[in-house]
Amino acid sequence: MNNSNFVYGSELQGRGYVTETDVAFGCFTTATGVVAFCGALLNFYLIKHVKAFHNAFGFFWAARTVGELGSDFVYAVYTGPITLVQSTSIPPELSIFAYHFAFTFTYIQCIMHWAVSINRLVAVWFPFYYDRIFNKKLCVGVVIGICVASVMVVALYLIFPCNHIGYSPRFHENVFVKCAADLGRNYSLITPTLVRACFSIACAGTGMINLITFSKIAHIRIVTCTLKVSMTFFNPECRRFLFKSSSKVSATYHVRPTEAGTHWVIGA
Protein backbone atom coordinates (compact mmCIF):
# COMPACT_ATOMS: atom_id res chain seq x y z
CA MET A 1 0.00 0.00 0.00
CA ASN A 2 1.40 3.47 -1.01
CA ASN A 3 1.43 6.38 1.37
CA SER A 4 -1.01 8.17 -0.97
CA ASN A 5 -3.61 5.41 -0.49
CA PHE A 6 -3.00 4.91 3.21
CA VAL A 7 -5.85 5.95 5.53
CA TYR A 8 -5.19 5.76 9.25
CA GLY A 9 -7.82 3.70 11.03
CA SER A 10 -9.31 2.13 7.90
CA GLU A 11 -9.22 -1.26 9.69
CA LEU A 12 -11.72 0.08 12.22
CA GLN A 13 -14.39 1.10 9.73
CA GLY A 14 -17.58 -0.80 8.88
CA ARG A 15 -18.34 -2.16 5.45
CA GLY A 16 -21.18 0.31 4.81
CA TYR A 17 -23.93 -2.29 4.76
CA VAL A 18 -25.16 -4.91 7.22
CA THR A 19 -25.16 -8.66 6.62
CA GLU A 20 -27.06 -11.39 8.43
CA THR A 21 -23.82 -12.36 10.16
CA ASP A 22 -23.41 -8.78 11.38
CA VAL A 23 -26.93 -8.80 12.80
CA ALA A 24 -26.45 -12.15 14.53
CA PHE A 25 -23.05 -11.27 15.98
CA GLY A 26 -24.09 -7.73 16.92
CA CYS A 27 -27.25 -8.86 18.70
CA PHE A 28 -25.43 -11.66 20.49
CA THR A 29 -22.62 -9.35 21.64
CA THR A 30 -25.01 -6.65 22.80
CA ALA A 31 -27.22 -9.13 24.65
CA THR A 32 -24.20 -10.79 26.25
CA GLY A 33 -22.88 -7.44 27.40
CA VAL A 34 -26.24 -6.40 28.88
CA VAL A 35 -26.78 -9.72 30.67
CA ALA A 36 -23.23 -9.75 32.04
CA PHE A 37 -23.60 -6.12 33.16
CA CYS A 38 -26.81 -6.99 35.03
CA GLY A 39 -25.10 -10.01 36.54
CA ALA A 40 -22.32 -7.77 37.84
CA LEU A 41 -24.90 -5.46 39.40
CA LEU A 42 -26.47 -8.50 41.08
CA ASN A 43 -23.04 -9.28 42.54
CA PHE A 44 -22.95 -5.82 44.12
CA TYR A 45 -26.43 -6.33 45.55
CA LEU A 46 -25.45 -9.64 47.13
CA ILE A 47 -22.17 -8.30 48.49
CA LYS A 48 -24.02 -5.41 50.11
CA HIS A 49 -26.88 -7.39 51.67
CA VAL A 50 -25.32 -10.78 52.51
CA LYS A 51 -23.44 -10.56 55.80
CA ALA A 52 -21.01 -13.33 54.83
CA PHE A 53 -19.47 -10.97 52.24
CA HIS A 54 -18.89 -8.13 54.71
CA ASN A 55 -15.18 -8.90 54.94
CA ALA A 56 -11.97 -8.66 52.94
CA PHE A 57 -13.12 -11.35 50.51
CA GLY A 58 -16.30 -9.40 49.72
CA PHE A 59 -14.29 -6.20 49.26
CA PHE A 60 -11.92 -7.87 46.81
CA TRP A 61 -14.82 -9.53 44.99
CA ALA A 62 -16.53 -6.16 44.62
CA ALA A 63 -13.35 -4.69 43.12
CA ARG A 64 -13.14 -7.63 40.72
CA THR A 65 -16.76 -6.99 39.75
CA VAL A 66 -15.89 -3.36 38.92
CA GLY A 67 -13.45 -4.70 36.35
CA GLU A 68 -16.18 -6.91 34.94
CA LEU A 69 -18.58 -3.96 34.69
CA GLY A 70 -16.14 -1.92 32.60
CA SER A 71 -15.59 -4.56 29.94
CA ASP A 72 -19.27 -5.54 29.87
CA PHE A 73 -20.22 -1.90 29.37
CA VAL A 74 -18.05 -1.65 26.25
CA TYR A 75 -19.60 -4.82 24.81
CA ALA A 76 -23.12 -3.55 25.47
CA VAL A 77 -22.83 0.07 24.27
CA TYR A 78 -20.07 -0.02 21.65
CA THR A 79 -18.92 -3.39 20.30
CA GLY A 80 -22.39 -4.85 19.71
CA PRO A 81 -24.13 -1.70 18.41
CA ILE A 82 -21.26 -0.66 16.11
CA THR A 83 -21.39 -4.13 14.54
CA LEU A 84 -25.09 -3.65 13.82
CA VAL A 85 -24.51 -0.23 12.26
CA GLN A 86 -21.39 -0.97 10.15
CA SER A 87 -20.62 2.73 9.79
CA THR A 88 -17.79 3.81 7.48
CA SER A 89 -17.06 7.00 9.40
CA ILE A 90 -16.04 5.73 12.83
CA PRO A 91 -13.41 7.98 14.45
CA PRO A 92 -10.33 5.78 14.97
CA GLU A 93 -9.71 7.47 18.32
CA LEU A 94 -13.13 6.33 19.55
CA SER A 95 -12.50 2.69 18.70
CA ILE A 96 -9.00 2.78 20.21
CA PHE A 97 -10.30 4.47 23.37
CA ALA A 98 -13.04 1.85 23.72
CA TYR A 99 -10.43 -0.90 23.51
CA HIS A 100 -8.15 0.81 26.05
CA PHE A 101 -11.08 1.43 28.38
CA ALA A 102 -12.21 -2.20 28.27
CA PHE A 103 -8.65 -3.51 28.51
CA THR A 104 -7.96 -1.43 31.63
CA PHE A 105 -10.96 -2.89 33.43
CA THR A 106 -10.15 -6.36 32.13
CA TYR A 107 -6.70 -6.09 33.70
CA ILE A 108 -8.25 -4.96 36.98
CA GLN A 109 -10.46 -8.04 36.88
CA CYS A 110 -7.47 -10.19 35.90
CA ILE A 111 -5.22 -9.15 38.82
CA MET A 112 -8.10 -9.10 41.31
CA HIS A 113 -8.61 -12.82 40.67
CA TRP A 114 -5.09 -13.29 41.99
CA ALA A 115 -5.85 -11.18 45.08
CA VAL A 116 -9.07 -13.12 45.74
CA SER A 117 -7.17 -16.41 45.51
CA ILE A 118 -4.52 -15.21 47.98
CA ASN A 119 -7.29 -14.09 50.33
CA ARG A 120 -8.92 -17.50 50.16
CA LEU A 121 -5.60 -19.26 50.76
CA VAL A 122 -4.93 -17.27 53.94
CA ALA A 123 -8.48 -17.96 55.18
CA VAL A 124 -7.92 -21.72 54.84
CA TRP A 125 -4.28 -22.04 55.89
CA PHE A 126 -4.05 -19.31 58.54
CA PRO A 127 -7.62 -18.64 59.76
CA PHE A 128 -6.49 -17.18 63.12
CA TYR A 129 -4.38 -14.53 61.36
CA TYR A 130 -6.93 -13.68 58.64
CA ASP A 131 -8.37 -10.51 60.22
CA ARG A 132 -4.94 -9.33 61.28
CA ILE A 133 -3.48 -9.71 57.78
CA PHE A 134 -6.43 -8.45 55.74
CA ASN A 135 -7.19 -5.29 57.66
CA LYS A 136 -8.97 -2.35 56.06
CA LYS A 137 -5.78 -0.45 55.26
CA LEU A 138 -4.24 -3.41 53.43
CA CYS A 139 -7.40 -4.17 51.44
CA VAL A 140 -7.80 -0.57 50.25
CA GLY A 141 -4.10 -0.38 49.41
CA VAL A 142 -4.23 -3.60 47.37
CA VAL A 143 -7.22 -2.43 45.32
CA ILE A 144 -5.71 1.01 44.67
CA GLY A 145 -2.39 -0.57 43.71
CA ILE A 146 -4.07 -2.95 41.26
CA CYS A 147 -6.04 -0.12 39.65
CA VAL A 148 -2.90 2.02 39.27
CA ALA A 149 -0.97 -0.94 37.86
CA SER A 150 -3.72 -1.59 35.29
CA VAL A 151 -3.68 2.03 34.13
CA MET A 152 0.11 1.94 33.85
CA VAL A 153 -0.09 -1.25 31.80
CA VAL A 154 -2.49 0.32 29.29
CA ALA A 155 -0.34 3.47 29.23
CA LEU A 156 2.30 1.38 27.44
CA TYR A 157 0.21 1.75 24.28
CA LEU A 158 0.73 5.51 24.48
CA ILE A 159 4.43 5.31 25.30
CA PHE A 160 5.37 2.94 22.48
CA PRO A 161 3.95 4.15 19.14
CA CYS A 162 2.31 2.08 16.45
CA ASN A 163 0.92 -0.58 18.78
CA HIS A 164 -2.72 0.44 19.05
CA ILE A 165 -5.58 -2.03 18.90
CA GLY A 166 -9.22 -1.29 18.07
CA TYR A 167 -12.44 -3.12 17.32
CA SER A 168 -13.25 -3.80 13.69
CA PRO A 169 -17.00 -4.22 12.98
CA ARG A 170 -16.16 -5.82 9.64
CA PHE A 171 -14.05 -8.60 11.13
CA HIS A 172 -15.93 -8.84 14.45
CA GLU A 173 -12.69 -8.72 16.45
CA ASN A 174 -10.00 -6.44 17.79
CA VAL A 175 -7.38 -5.68 15.14
CA PHE A 176 -4.04 -3.95 14.89
CA VAL A 177 -4.16 -0.33 13.70
CA LYS A 178 -1.32 0.47 11.33
CA CYS A 179 0.12 3.95 11.73
CA ALA A 180 2.03 3.98 8.41
CA ALA A 181 1.83 2.19 5.08
CA ASP A 182 5.48 1.07 5.22
CA LEU A 183 5.41 -0.10 8.84
CA GLY A 184 6.53 -3.61 7.93
CA ARG A 185 4.35 -5.45 10.47
CA ASN A 186 0.63 -5.99 10.97
CA TYR A 187 0.58 -6.79 14.67
CA SER A 188 1.06 -5.04 18.00
CA LEU A 189 4.28 -5.69 19.88
CA ILE A 190 2.70 -4.94 23.26
CA THR A 191 -0.60 -6.81 23.18
CA PRO A 192 0.74 -10.42 23.07
CA THR A 193 3.00 -9.73 26.06
CA LEU A 194 0.20 -8.18 28.11
CA VAL A 195 -2.22 -10.97 27.24
CA ARG A 196 0.32 -13.63 28.23
CA ALA A 197 1.01 -11.79 31.49
CA CYS A 198 -2.72 -11.61 32.24
CA PHE A 199 -3.08 -15.31 31.44
CA SER A 200 -0.19 -16.16 33.76
CA ILE A 201 -1.67 -14.13 36.63
CA ALA A 202 -5.37 -14.91 36.20
CA CYS A 203 -5.22 -18.50 34.98
CA ALA A 204 -1.92 -20.19 35.79
CA GLY A 205 -1.20 -18.15 38.92
CA THR A 206 -4.63 -18.37 40.51
CA GLY A 207 -4.92 -22.00 39.45
CA MET A 208 -1.77 -22.86 41.38
CA ILE A 209 -2.89 -20.87 44.45
CA ASN A 210 -6.33 -22.52 44.38
CA LEU A 211 -4.70 -25.95 44.10
CA ILE A 212 -2.73 -25.26 47.30
CA THR A 213 -5.91 -24.03 49.00
CA PHE A 214 -7.95 -27.07 47.95
CA SER A 215 -5.16 -29.43 49.08
CA LYS A 216 -5.45 -27.92 52.56
CA ILE A 217 -9.24 -28.34 52.51
CA ALA A 218 -8.82 -31.98 51.46
CA HIS A 219 -6.27 -32.49 54.25
CA ILE A 220 -8.69 -31.04 56.82
CA ARG A 221 -11.46 -33.35 55.60
CA ILE A 222 -9.19 -36.41 55.78
CA VAL A 223 -7.95 -35.52 59.27
CA THR A 224 -11.54 -34.97 60.45
CA CYS A 225 -12.63 -38.36 59.16
CA THR A 226 -9.57 -40.03 60.66
CA LEU A 227 -10.31 -38.54 64.08
CA LYS A 228 -13.85 -39.97 63.91
CA VAL A 229 -12.29 -43.55 63.16
CA SER A 230 -9.85 -42.96 66.00
CA MET A 231 -12.86 -42.25 68.23
CA THR A 232 -14.19 -45.70 67.55
CA PHE A 233 -11.02 -47.72 68.16
CA PHE A 234 -9.10 -45.72 70.73
CA ASN A 235 -11.80 -44.29 72.96
CA PRO A 236 -12.35 -46.77 75.84
CA GLU A 237 -16.04 -45.94 76.13
CA CYS A 238 -16.57 -46.66 72.44
CA ARG A 239 -14.62 -49.92 72.68
CA ARG A 240 -16.66 -51.10 75.66
CA PHE A 241 -19.88 -50.24 73.89
CA LEU A 242 -18.98 -51.94 70.60
CA PHE A 243 -16.95 -54.91 71.77
CA LYS A 244 -18.50 -55.87 75.16
CA SER A 245 -19.24 -59.56 75.60
CA SER A 246 -22.64 -60.60 74.43
CA SER A 247 -22.55 -63.94 76.26
CA LYS A 248 -24.90 -64.06 79.21
CA VAL A 249 -25.27 -66.65 81.93
CA SER A 250 -28.72 -68.16 81.89
CA ALA A 251 -30.06 -69.69 85.07
CA THR A 252 -32.75 -72.37 85.28
CA TYR A 253 -34.60 -73.36 88.34
CA HIS A 254 -35.47 -76.99 89.08
CA VAL A 255 -37.82 -78.16 91.78
CA ARG A 256 -36.41 -81.22 93.51
CA PRO A 257 -38.67 -82.87 96.00
CA THR A 258 -36.97 -84.40 99.05
CA GLU A 259 -38.10 -86.07 102.16
CA ALA A 260 -37.68 -82.96 104.23
CA GLY A 261 -39.53 -80.79 101.77
CA THR A 262 -39.18 -79.01 98.49
CA HIS A 263 -35.75 -77.47 97.54
CA TRP A 264 -35.08 -74.90 94.76
CA VAL A 265 -31.90 -75.88 92.97
CA ILE A 266 -30.32 -73.49 90.50
CA GLY A 267 -28.77 -75.20 87.56
CA ALA A 268 -26.93 -73.76 84.59
Automatic annotation (TrEMBL):
InterPro entries: 7TM_GPCR_serpentine_rcpt_Srx (IPR019430). The chain crosses the membrane at residues 23-47, 98-126, 138-160, 193-212. The lineage of its organism: Eukaryota, Metazoa, Ecdysozoa, Nematoda, Chromadorea. This is 7TM_GPCR_Srx domain-containing protein. Residues 34-219 form the 7TM GPCR serpentine receptor class x (Srx) domain. PANTHER family: G-PROTEIN COUPLED RECEPTORS FAMILY 1 PROFILE DOMAIN-CONTAINING PROTEIN, SERPENTINE RECEPTOR, CLASS X. Keywords: Membrane, Transmembrane, Transmembrane helix. CDD domains: 7tm_classA_rhodopsin-like. It comes from Steinernema glaseri. Gene3D superfamilies: Rhodopsin 7-helix transmembrane proteins. The keyword Glycosyltransferase does not apply.
